[in-house]
Automatic annotation (TrEMBL):
Homodimer. It comes from Pagothenia borchgrevinki. Pfam families: Abhydrolase_2 (PF02230). GO terms for cellular component: endoplasmic reticulum; nuclear membrane; plasma membrane. One of its GO terms (biological process) is fatty acid metabolic process. It is an enzyme of class 3 (hydrolase). Belongs to the AB hydrolase superfamily. AB hydrolase 2 family. Acts as an acyl-protein thioesterase. Hydrolyzes fatty acids from S-acylated cysteine residues in proteins such as trimeric G alpha proteins or HRAS. Acts as a palmitoyl thioesterase that catalyzes depalmitoylation of proteins, such as ADRB2, KCNMA1 and SQSTM1. Acts as a negative regulator of autophagy by mediating palmitoylation of SQSTM1, decreasing affinity between SQSTM1 and ATG8 proteins and recruitment of ubiquitinated cargo proteins to autophagosomes. Acts as a lysophospholipase and hydrolyzes lysophosphatidylcholine (lyso-PC). This is Acyl-protein thioesterase 1. Gene3D superfamilies: alpha/beta hydrolase. One of its GO terms (molecular function) is palmitoyl-(protein) hydrolase activity. The lineage of its organism: Eukaryota, Metazoa, Chordata, Craniata, Vertebrata. Its main location: membrane.
Length: 232
């Protein structure tokens, strides 16, 4: 897993408690690593699911005065009108598609792989799911937005995920990625995939972070989209 030709460490992994028949690939937010999210998923793990939490490469980030930190792509601003790092977003998305391919080679079909992320990672997961040729189980998108949204619907014209289920969660007190940006993203998503399959949940008083109630909702969504093989 690398980006910008700068290598990142191997992902944090929570192995399945028994044979893995499904996987969740979850992308952390700006300046973070996959370790905290791996710990979070270990607390809500489902026995047949493997959780993969990759680490973003380190790069200078314009939003933070060009300081170097883990980042999937450069960010110039966090409002709907900000310029975007189109080349970086597309490059990062290709890296995530390669990670999905690796799991398919490991024996988990892509339709049993759920993509997710928080903030910048959630943004990348939405973009990747809409532009990949891999049929996915769905997306969990927390406190985030859809990058390069003006490139859609053209960018997703041949995407096989028009009927995928999406759980989008956002705190209504988010001072970093405004709640309105999240709700506008949910409306945009409804125009790109089956609107009946888009769930947007808000959490009262939640800032730019996750909370136990939200993680329970995430677990329920994963259980529904990635049932044990015998339950399908």
């Amino acid at each position: 897993m690398c980006g910008n030709s700068m290598s990142a460490p191997l992902p944090a992994i929570v192995p399945a408690a028994r044979k893995a028949t499904a996987a969740v690939i979850f992308l952390h937010g700006l300046g973070d690593t996959g370790h905290g999210w791996a710990e979070g998923f270990a607390g809500i793990r489902i026995p047949h699911v493997k959780y993969i939490c990759p680490h973003a490469p380190t790069m200078p980030v314009s939003l933070n005065m060009r300081m170097s930190m883990p980042s999937w792509f450069d960010i110039y601003g966090l409002n709907p009108d900000a310029n975007e790092d189109e080349a970086g977003i597309k490059r990062a998305s290709e890296n995530i598609k390669a990670l999905i391919d690796q799991e398919v080679k490991n024996g988990i079909p892509s339709h049993r792989i759920l993509l997710g992320g928080f903030s910048q990672g959630g943004a990348l997961s939405l973009y990747t799911a809409l532009t990949t040729q891999q049929k996915l189980a769905g997306v969990v998108a927390l406190s985030c937005w859809l990058p390069l949204r003006k490139s859609f619907p053209q960018a997703s014209a041949s995407c096989p995920n028009k009927d995928m289920h999406v759980l989008q969660c956002h705190g209504d007190a988010d001072p970093v990625v405004p709640f309105m940006f999240g709700s506008q993203t949910a409306e945009k998503m409804k125009s790109l995939v089956n609107p009946a399959n888009i769930t947007f949940k808000s959490y009262r008083g939640l800032p730019h972070s996750a909370c136990p109630e939200e993680m329970v909702d995430v677990k329920r969504f994963i259980e529904k989209q990635l049932p044990a093989i015998g339950d399908e």
